[in-house]
Amino acid sequence: MSSQLVWLITGTTSGLGRDLALEALKRGDKVIATGRARSVAKLADLKEKGADVLELDVTAPLEDLHEIAKKDLSEDGGALNGICVNNVTRMFMIYMQVGALCGTLCHYQVGTSRSICIDFGYFRTAFLAADQRAPQVARIPDYQETSQRAEAALQAYNGKQPGDPLKGVAVIADVVKGEGGAAGKPFPRSLALGTDCYTGAKQSSLDAIERLEAWKEVSFSTDYED
């Protein structure tokens, strides 16, 4: 693997995106950190640490994203590991042959490409903080009580999430680069980060197997008999 990788990371103004950018820079990799116009100033410290800062609105028209991708990646070609979302990826993959969905990380080198879907448990970022979301508006009165209970539960959990963001991004970098706990392991198609995520994913898989077996006879009944 290339000694220096190029990471395209959206949402680097805060949270896991920012922590991942710092982790990649710490490992000597190149980072393209993106943010919307109203928040791109928050990326100044990342720029000071060596990141390229790119103003990028993930909701912009595809034509605008196309031009941004063409301009930026023509200067930053090479191996790319990116966490991208929605129509942003559609434009960047034209130039880097890398595709991703929200929570999906893709790695591209000449002649090869790999992707991994990373499922996150609850990590202790500011994501659940009240000031990180728009004020709650009850549009359907009948659901107001349910909505309020859900909001109260989130607020009660804020600051108590089990996941350590710094450990999480370190694992992501290890998996991409084949280092640390990922050394010698095959590149996974998916990865559950956090004990809560692992437990939930395992139970969901067990439930799916139980459901398959319960309906096995019905499933098999639709084949031709010859």
UniProtKB/TrEMBL annotation:
Query: Where are the membrane-spanning stretches?
Result: none
Q: What SUPFAM superfamilies does the annotation carry?
A: NAD(P)-binding Rossmann-fold domains
InterPro entries associated with the record: NAD(P)-bd_dom_sf (IPR036291), SDR_oxidoreductase (IPR051911)
Instruction: List keywords of the entry alphabetically.
Output: Oxidoreductase
What GO terms are given for molecular function? Answer: oxidoreductase activity
Q: Which family is it part of?
A: Belongs to the short-chain dehydrogenases/reductases (SDR) family.
Q: Which protein, by its recorded name, is this?
A: NAD(P)-binding protein
- Species assigned in the record: Agrocybe chaxingu
